[in-house]
Amino acid sequence: xxxxxxxxxxxxxxxxxxxxxxxxxxxxxxxxxxxxxxxxxxxxxxxxxxxxxxxxxxxxxxxxxxxxxxxxxxxxxxxxxxxxxxxxxxxxxxxxxxxxxxxxxxxxxxxxxxxxxxxxxxx
Length: 123
Fold this sequence. Notes:
With 123 residues, this protein is mainly β.
């Protein structure tokens, strides 16, 4: 049973930084993808950044160059370093993983989800 628990959200001023963490249990690095997604109020959930086994990480265009996804050496903790935060980055951020090889930033291809951590950006 895969369990994902996010933390690190909070309220920050525009231009500030936050680092999100996701502790993954029951997950192994053999899973094709693990990543971060977000859902702003009134909007659909979208992919933010994903680590893909054997391939480079990918980022949504809106966060590329500002956010960095990484894992600890044991592959049990997933991080999202978010710099230069903007009001449009405010959302509930979720960690997710999948056994589906065709993953990437496509929300519907992910099977396992955490409960989310809220990020608020004040302008």
